[in-house]
Amino acid sequence: MRVPIIAGNWKMFKDETEAFELATEIRKRLKDVSSKRIVLCPPFTSIPSVKKAIQGSSIYLGAQNMHWEEEGAYTGEISAKMLLGSGCSFVILGHSERRAHFGETDQVINKKIKKAIEEGLTPIVCVGEILEERESGKTESVVEEQIRGAFEGINKKEIEKLVIAYEPVWAIGTGKTATPKQANEVHRFIREKISLLFNQEIAQKVCILYGGSVKPENSKDLLAEPDIDGALVGGASLRADSFDQIVRSD
Ligand code: PEP
Q1: Is the Cβ atom of 128 under 6 angstroms away from ligand 1?
Q2: Which domains are seen in the chain, by residue range?
Q3: For residue 1, what are the contacts with CB-CB under 8 A and spacing of at least 6?
Q4: Which among 126, 133, 234, 235 could bridge 138 via Cys, Cβ 3.0 to 4.6 Å?
Q5: How far is the CA of 213 from the centre of ligand 1 (A)?
Q6: pLDDT truncated to tens, each residue of the chain (250 aa)?
Q7: Is residue 97 lining ligand 1, measured as CB closer than 6 Å?
Q8: Whose CA is nearest to atom 6 of ligand 1?
Q9: 167 catalytic, yes or no?
């Protein structure tokens, strides 16, 4: 059984005080929810205040990026160990904004995934096509290439430890959402690829989240699809009421 995950990607929003307030409110609202795993991914500087706000609850803490090296002269970077030490158990890797604005490649994402797993963090690995690729019928080939690149050299034991997020880039922050059918088709395709690259049993275990303008108005239909195991939520995770509604949308 795959336990659904609803993860909030707060991107570069919420300073320490705002993050504490938002996490406290989310904790209050979701205290009775045990059927889903809730993950909050604030900016690095707000990790300690969110940790404080959710301490003792079942909410997990996550980060939005990390470096693949243990330590070193990498100005501005954060290691997996540092994230673990700050209380994180998840880390978003390969988000399309990191691919587009910071030049992250599948090879770099692959190194980060390996390091995250080695250290005991659960990576949420993002894949997804841009509008032009969807319109020219390349969605599957793009997603397959991202998956092959990101999972190169990863073994069966490791793959079970990660989460995949399908996030069509054209749907992120645009208000446009893939229809539940469109999203599920790609989720099914990803599961088939995992089955071919690893095996059927593993493919059935891996959680595949959908991301791209998920909001209370569309989350119920998206989450009802058989291959959609949760959501990675950006904009709508910045308000406790909308995040709460998404978590409770089934
Ligand atoms: C995201 O940041 O991963 C995302 C899906 O954003 P939004 O929900 O705002 O489209």
Answers
A1: no
A2: 5-247 (3.20.20.70)
A3: none
A4: 133
A5: 6
A6: 899 999 999 999 999 999 999 999 999 999 999 999 999 999 999 999 999 999 999 999 999 999 999 999 999 999 999 999 999 999 999 999 999 999 999 999 999 999 999 999 999 999 999 999 999 999 999 999 999 999 999 999 999 999 999 999 999 988 888 899 999 999 999 999 999 999 999 999 999 999 999 999 999 999 999 999 999 999 999 999 999 999 999 7
A7: no
A8: 234
A9: yes
